[in-house]
Design a protein that fits this description.
The chain is of the alpha+beta class and 176 residues long. It is built from four helices and seven strands, in the order βαααββββββα.
Amino acid sequence: MKLAFTLAEADLVALARYQMEHSPALLRRYRLQRYGLLLFFGLLALVSYFAFHKPAVALYSAALAVFCFGLYPFYYRWVAGRTLRQIVRARLNPAVFAPRTLQLNAAGLRQTVADKETLIPWSRIGPVTVTPDHAFIAVDGVYGLAIPRGRVPEDLFRRFIEALRAGRLDEPTTDD
């Protein structure tokens, strides 16, 4: 089964946003940072109180731990939203907008862009998520491929996604 399309800058921004919000590897890093801040300031509060006998410093450190833990999700979304388009533009090259073809075969998913072929084995393909505007395919735990629904015939899009999901050994999670 074959699917041909081109990407626009809006598709890359959508992929980057979805990647930041849903990729297992990035979510794991986000959780480590959030709980790391809580642990750091919590330990600072305990050391300040018990080792240095400074209850005011301990109280401020504990308050800062709770404050950072509570506000970190908002801060993360704000930073991501503010810099997302800049990050995508900085990584752009002309080949990104070249026509591309995705083809499913027994070995995996073959992507052809500007006469360069890449084979992604089935073992590296993760969840496939379909949204109203795109389909996102995870590779090695990070959503790395986007298929814009508006530039592909709907029946071909659905058949390709079904075939992609059927080619996998385990069932992916979806957000249909």
